[in-house]
Structures are given as structure tokens and as C-alpha cells.
């Protein structure tokens, strides 16, 4: 978990990371924590969303591997995405995630293996293996969607991650539905679950502050990373 969060915080805005992080902290501090609480509300509300409209593809967001194997969270995402595909909501599955941490294979490769073992047709499983975090997942998918002429993606992740994924998708003008893998740990209502919810609220707050900062200084370089 710590490794995954560290990669996220260090990658999104490049050279603007320290400034945007500092601004996010100041906004939260001067706002007496209310901005983060607002984002927490978004995280919790979005976690309950379940979109069941047909899509061109089901996008399963990756997760850092543990000794080259999918973690329980990633496995839950993969199993849920497979069930959605089997129910006929989309003709193809895309597993996102490149080479992260100390892994020797990409998250997408590991996820594809699991989907094939579950019975997904090989021709229906695609890999996006160039990204290292959620923002890059959606940025790369924007190019894929445009190239293939797709209209809509169904994004699969664990429920508490969906708000951040939705924010990134909006930033890249992607039309997406959301579906949460509700079997993914931690258990809803547990201390770990609330800790993860707060973590996601902080990351979501930081993202929005970073976008606002990039627009305020009219930095095309920074904005190109988030929109």
C-alpha cells in the first residue's frame, strides 16, 4: 500500500508535484479539513455506484503486484471485470497497468493471465501496459478510445477507488460507467476501510487542487498531464 501511494504522489504532476502537494495541504489546513471531508463524501457516495449500461470495453484498473502476483485487491477487480464481461456488458476486457515497484512483469500481463484462467477468450483480453498509476491508465486509454472509435468504457476497480478514477476520466473527457469490486479488501466499515477512504479523499483533493493550480498559472505542460 505504502509503495503504491508513494508512486502516485511522485508521478502525477512531474516537476509541479511539490508545489501542488503544498497547496493541497494549505487549502486543507486553512479550510479546517472541510475540503478533504467534501472529497471524502464524494469517495463514499461514488463507492456505492453501480452502472450496468453496455460499453465498448471493460477497463480493469491495475494494482501493484506482490512478488509478481496480483494482490487480493487486484484479484477482486479481475474477477468482477470477468463477471461483467460474461454477463454481456462489453465484448472486450482491458487490463491496465505497467511495470511498477520491484515487479518483473507488468500488472496488465499478470491480470491477463488471471482472466484467461477464468475462461475469458484470449482475443477479448487487451493490455494497456505502459502506465504506472491510475492517472496514466486513463490518459493512455483516451488515445486508445479515439483510435478505435469507441464511445464508452465501463471502469472496474475497488469501490473506494472509483471516485478518483471518475475524476480522472472526466479530466480526459472520457465517457465512463463505474462498477466496484465489492469483494475487494478491506472489509467495509473496518479501520482499514476508513483509512483507505481517507487516503483516497486526500488524493482526490490533491488532484483537484493540482488541476486548479495548473490552470491558474496557465501551464500547458502540467495541464497536458491531467486533461
Explain the overall architecture.
The chain is of the alpha/beta class and 227 residues long. The chain is 54% helix and 10% strand. A five-stranded parallel beta sheet has the order 3-2-1-4-5, with helices on both faces. Mean pLDDT is 92; it is low at 1-9.
- The number of E-state strands comes to 5
Q: For the largest beta sheet, what order do the strands appear in spatially?
A: 3-2-1-4-5
The average pLDDT value, as a whole number, equals: 92
Helix content: 40-55%
Biggest beta sheet attributes: 5 strands, parallel
Q: Show unreliable segments.
A: 1-9
The quaternary state of the protein chains shown equals single chain
The end-to-end span amounts to: 26 Å
Radius of gyration: 17 Å
Q: Hey, roughly how much beta strand do the residues contain?
A: 5-15%
H/E series: HHHEHEHEHEHEHH
> What is the number of helical segments per DSSP (H or I, 4+ residues)?
9
* Shape label: globular
Structural class: alpha/beta
In brief:
The chain has 227 residues and is α/β, with parallel strands linked by helices. The protein has helices at residues 2-11, 17-30, 34-47, 72-86, 107-118, 134-148, 162-171, 191-216, 220-226; strands at residues 57-60, 93-96, 125-128, 153-157, 176-180.
